[in-house]
Structures are given as C-alpha cells and as structure tokens.
C-alpha cells in the first residue's frame, strides 16, 4: 500500500475509533490526560508498525490491544506505587508510635535529677570544707544563719559569705539546668 493510502486509512481509523478508544482507556485509568496519552501512543505505535502487521490483523483490534497493554502497565505501576507508599506510611506509623511511646515514658525530672544531684555533690566537694559545712547546715539541715554562726563560732556575715560563695559556684555549674529546674519547681 502506498503512503497516501496509508495516511487515508490511518485518518479514517483515527476519526472513527479515537473517541471509543479514549472512553475505553479512561474507564480504566480514570484520568483524561493519561487516557489521551495512551490512545495517542497506541495510534503512533500502530503507525510505526503498520507494515509489520499480518494480513489477518485488523488495525482497530491491534490499536485496542496496544491500549489495553499500556493501560495495564500504567495500572500496575500505580499499584506498585501505592504499595510502596503504603509500606512507607506503615514504617512511618511504626516510627511515630515508637516515638510517642518513648516520649510518654520520658520523665524529664528523672532524667535531670541524677545529673543535677551529681553536679551539686561535685560542686560542694570542690568547695573549701568550711563552705561545705555551712551550706550543708543551711540547705540540708534547715538551720538559720544565726544558728550556724553560733554553732561554728562565726559571725552571721561570715555565714552569709560562705552561703553566697556556695550558691555562686552552684549557679555556675548548673547554668544549663537552671531553666529546667525553675520549670520543674514551679509546677
């Protein structure tokens, strides 16, 4: 068959079957643009392979078979993408559930209490023994400055000095914990 006759046959098939083929592709793909692309690719594929067709093959059946296979490929790809997306969502869900469970079990006061206790003990240990003794009497034994001064035969000003010195050392060493301590102690 000569080229002009091929073009006429192709145009005739296109005009007659293209709307039907579009409906067929759309009924499976549910996307007008994809359906149009598949139909146009099928017509193009037919045109490129028209000379290779055996005499018993009808062009509309050949084109429709091509459309069917292209739709199947697209649907299978979409199915794989959905499965992958579902798997990713499942993994993200598991990760989220784990993070929620860990955060629910997290008790900030427990996390920092031991750290703060260790820093306080180390800071007090590093202070001169007189300052340690005065701070311990004041903060752990709840003695008033006057009582400590009498007990240790010191002036109240000396007791205030040692308490101030201990608090300053603690403030320096606990600088990272002070906002958290304020938050925890104000509840």
Number of strands: 0
What is the level 1 CATH name of the largest domain? Mainly Alpha
User: Which outline best applies?
Assistant: rod-shaped
Largest sheet: none
In the CATH hierarchy, the third-tier topology of the largest domain is known as: Rna Polymerase Sigma Factor, Chain: A
What number of domains?
A: 2
Taking all Cα atoms into account, the compactness measure Rg is 42 Å
Please give the share of residues in helix.
Answer: over 70%
Give the number of helices: 8
Task: Please tell me about this protein's structure.
Helix 6 packs across helix 7. The protein is built from eight helices and no strands. It has two domains: 3-104, RNA polymerase sigma factor, region 2, helix turn helix motif (Rna Polymerase Sigma Factor, Chain: A); 108-185, Winged helix-like DNA-binding domain superfamily/Winged helix DNA-binding domain (Arc Repressor Mutant, subunit A). The longest helix is centred in the middle third of the chain and has 47 residues, at 59-105. With 187 residues, the protein is mostly helical. It starts with a helix and ends with a helix.
Task: Please describe the topology of this protein.
Elements (H helix, E strand, L loop, with lengths): L2 H27 L2 H18 L9 H47 L2 H19 L2 H12 L4 H8 L3 H18 L4 H8 L2
Helix pairs in contact: 1-2, 1-3, 2-3, 4-7, 5-7, 6-7
């Amino acid at each position: 068959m000569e080229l002009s006759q091929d073009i006429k046959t192709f145009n005739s098939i296109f005009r007659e079957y293209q709307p039907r083929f579009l409906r067929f592709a759309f009924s499976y793909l549910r996307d007008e643009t994809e359906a149009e692309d598949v139909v146009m690719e099928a017509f193009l594929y037919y045109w490129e392979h028209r000379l290779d067709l055996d005499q018993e093959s009808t062009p509309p059946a050949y084109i429709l078979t091509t459309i069917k296979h292209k739709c199947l490929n697209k649907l299978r790809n979409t199915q794989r993408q959905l499965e992958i997306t579902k798997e990713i969502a499942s993994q993200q869900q598991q990760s989220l559930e784990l993070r929620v469970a860990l955060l629910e079990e997290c008790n900030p006061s427990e996390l920092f209490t031991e750290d703060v206790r260790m820093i306080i003990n180390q800071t007090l240990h590093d202070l001169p023994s007189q300052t340690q003794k005065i701070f311990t009497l004041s903060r752990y034994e709840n003695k008033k400055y006057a009582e400590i001064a009498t007990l240790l035969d010191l002036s109240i000003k000396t007791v205030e000095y040692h308490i101030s010195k201990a608090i300053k050392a603690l403030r320096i060493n606990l600088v990272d914990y002070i906002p958290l301590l304020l938050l925890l102690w104000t509840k």
